[in-house]
From TrEMBL:
Residues 29-76 form the Metapyrocatechase-like N-terminal domain. Keywords: Aromatic hydrocarbons catabolism, Dioxygenase, Metal-binding, Oxidoreductase, Repeat. This is Catechol-2,3-dioxygenase. It holds the Pfam family Diox-like_N. It comes from the Bacteria. One of its GO terms (molecular function) is dioxygenase activity. Belongs to the extradiol ring-cleavage dioxygenase family. The keyword Oxidoreductase applies. The lineage of its organism: Bacteria, Pseudomonadati, Pseudomonadota, Gammaproteobacteria, Enterobacterales. It comes from Proteus mirabilis. Transmembrane segments: none annotated. InterPro entries: Glyas_Bleomycin-R_OHBP_Dase (IPR029068), XylE-like_N (IPR054560).
Amino acid sequence: DDQGRVYLKAWTEVDKFSLVLREADEPGMDFMGFKVVDEDALRQLERDLMAYGCAVEQLPAGELNSCGRRVRFQAP
């Protein structure tokens, strides 16, 4: 993409991708994701995370190629 990321998937996957690679100076993982079935499930997850005490950041649709709105949190 325009940020230098490469999107990969396995032969039988139905989603557009399941792994995103980018060049970096050090090895690591930026994040991992979980799919939800719809916007209501995402809103409920966000409420549950905040009730548990996790800070939640909303990320707009399209920030990651072919992805809808997302929420970011750090697991305790």
